[in-house]
Design a protein that fits this description.
about 240 residues; 8-stranded mixed beta sheet; about 40% helix
């Protein structure tokens, strides 16, 4: 897998195929959002979209073989900066984006930071706030426990501030103010979540607030995947370019 430098971050990624570019932001939370995790998804864009699109799948900072320092002034903007730097590195002025789990929060931040560069978005069971903040504090603390040995530069204050930057705001998707969601005008599909990390209410509210969004309620079970695939394929065929 190729690697490039984005400031003091080193980002590893895959880049395959030809056609309209699609940035694929994998599930897996802070510790595991990397390209290989797509293989575990009910709908895997690296397989389903192969042959028709150029598919770019990064390992997010501090997952897989990507690395970046941990600092107290980092947050969702740091991930967006990495992703946009990758697009610049590959010469992509505009791209569609597919994100699952934490990828939904990444999508929202990209749409705040560079809406003119995103042609369309597919948010699959996005994480979000629905009386479950403690769940995400535990997610962060588990990640910190496993990753702290790789970050001697980070103080306890850095870790605490980073956790607050990511998960302490009262925002539906954590990464942007809710007013940003209401202003999104890019075509969006929202595939509904169904658990504590990906509450159904978050997906439903996102599809309601974003006027250009359409909610796909059933997509994860074996009997629903092919129907959902047809919806996603048609959506990207209409909007990704």
């Amino acid at each position: 897998m190729p690697t490039f430098s984005a400031g003091d971050a080193r980002i590893t990624f895959t880049d395959s195929g030809e056609g309209p570019p699609v940035l694929c932001l994998a599930p897996g939370g802070l510790a595991h959002s990397r390209a290989e995790l797509w293989a575990r998804a009910p709908w895997n864009p690296l397989e389903r979209l192969a042959g028709r699109y150029r598919l770019i799948a990064p390992d997010q900072r501090n997952t897989g073989t990507s690395w970046a320092p941990v600092r107290g002034d980092d947050g969702w903007h740091s991930y967006a900066a990495d992703q946009l730097a990758l697009a610049d590195h590959l010469g992509l002025d505009r791209f569609a984006v597919v994100g699952m789990c934490i990828g939904g929060a990444f999508i929202a931040k990209l749409l705040e930071e560079a809406p003119e560069r995103v042609t369309a978005a597919v948010a699959m069971q996005p994480i979000g706030l629905d009386g479950n903040r403690a769940t995400f504090h535990r997610l962060f603390d588990d990640w910190r426990a496993g990753a702290s040995g790789d970050h001697p530069e980070a103080t306890d204050a850095d870790w605490q501030q980073l956790r607050a930057n990511l998960f302490d705001a009262d925002r539906l998707l954590f990464s942007v103010d809710d007013a940003v969601l209401a202003g999104i005008d890019r075509p969006m599909l929202v595939l509904r979540g169904d658990d504590d990390y990906h509450p159904a209410a978050v997906s439903e509210r996102l599809a309601e607030v974003v006027g250009s969004a359409t909610l796909v309620e059933r997509w994860k079970d074996a009997g629903d995947v092919e129907d959902a695939d047809r919806v996603i394929q048609a959506f990207l065929a209409a909007h990704a370019a």
